[in-house]
């Protein structure tokens, strides 16, 4: 991969693909597989108790620890997702002659995953969860990085469809840099709310109590989001929109 590839990939930050990847990360954060687990992850990676994180005096002492542990945790799962994006793009480049069918087949698959997400039709094998658990966290910031890696590697199926949509699109990218960039956007979308929730733990708990009442609506929105991406794949509208935006930035 050449440095020029990164310059080309970064020269169009307003591409709809980047915005969609970022939005996918946000939707992943508020999904039923991640949002309820955030308090557990924050206490686990910081090594602080729930009481310490909610106590005003203790919380001020833990602020810097929470900041750095959260950053290393985010870097850990971003590392895995970006590797997945690079791998998907590389595999897609090896199958260049089949990219038309990858787009069409991927579009159908993403629509089916979206329908599953809405709850209209349940696909049994997507209900199976596989998680890697670490009973005791390794010490230090390296431990937080490793927990982030394990979090990404043990990705649960109910978030998998959103991630799969971005990976399928990454597989159709013409440059490795663009595939990496797509998963970077995704990781940022997932990482920012986690980072903010670890710094403002009490505020997160307050917001979480309100959000969890609307989990069903969030699932439906996520499903419609996936169905919309699938339609863009099937109609090749993704490419048309990106070409139009590129023409605006490069008159």
Question: How would you explain this protein's 3D organization?
Answer:
This protein has 12 helices and no strands. The protein has 251 residues and is mainly alpha-helical. It has one domain. It starts with a helix and ends with a helix.
Summed up, what is this model?
It contains 12 helices and no strands. The chain is mainly alpha-helical and 251 residues long.
List keywords for this structure.
76% helix, 251 residues, mainly alpha, 12 helices
Overall tally of structural domains: 1
Shape: globular
Mean pLDDT figure: 77
Radius of gyration: 19 Å
Sequence of secondary-structure elements = HHHHHHHHHHHH
Compute the number of helices.
Answer: 12
Structural class: mainly alpha
Number of extended strands? 0
- The termini sit apart by 27 Å
The stretches of 5 or more residues where confidence is low (pLDDT under 50) are 5-14
Task: State the helical fraction.
Answer: over 70%
Q: Can you summarize the main beta sheet?
A: none
Strand content: under 5%
Question: Topology, pairings included?
Answer:
Blueprint: H1 3-10, H2 16-29, H3 38-46, H4 50-54, H5 56-94, H6 99-118, H7 140-153, H8 160-171, H9 176-199, H10 201-211, H11 215-235, H12 237-249
């Amino acid at each position: 991969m050449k440095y020029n590839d990164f310059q080309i990939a970064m020269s169009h930050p307003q591409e709809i693909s980047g915005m969609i990847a970022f939005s996918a990360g946000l939707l992943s954060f508020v999904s039923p597989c991640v949002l309820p687990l955030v308090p557990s992850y924050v206490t686990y990676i910081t090594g602080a108790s729930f009481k310490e994180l909610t106590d005003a005096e203790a919380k001020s002492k833990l602020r810097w620890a929470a900041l750095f542990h959260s950053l290393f945790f985010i870097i850990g799962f971003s590392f895995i997702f970006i590797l997945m994006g690079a791998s998907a793009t590389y595999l897609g480049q090896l199958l260049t002659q089949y990219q038309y069918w990858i787009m069409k087949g991927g579009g159908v698959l993403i629509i089916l995953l979206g329908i599953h997400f809405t709850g209209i039709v349940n696909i049994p094998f997507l209900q199976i969860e596989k998680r890697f658990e670490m009973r005791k966290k390794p010490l230090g910031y390296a431990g937080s990085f490793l927990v982030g890696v394990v979090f990404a590697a043990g990705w649960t199926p109910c978030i998998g469809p959103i991630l799969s949509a971005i990976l399928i699109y990454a597989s159709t990218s013409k440059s490795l840099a663009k595939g990496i960039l797509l998963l970077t956007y995704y990781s940022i979308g997932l990482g920012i709310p986690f980072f903010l929730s670890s710094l403002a733990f009490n505020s997160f708990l307050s917001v979480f109590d309100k959000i969890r009442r609307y989990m069903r609506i969030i699932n439906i929105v996520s499903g419609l989001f996936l169905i919309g991406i699938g339609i863009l794949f099937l109609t090749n509208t993704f490419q048309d929109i990106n070409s139009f935006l590129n023409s605006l930035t490069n008159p």
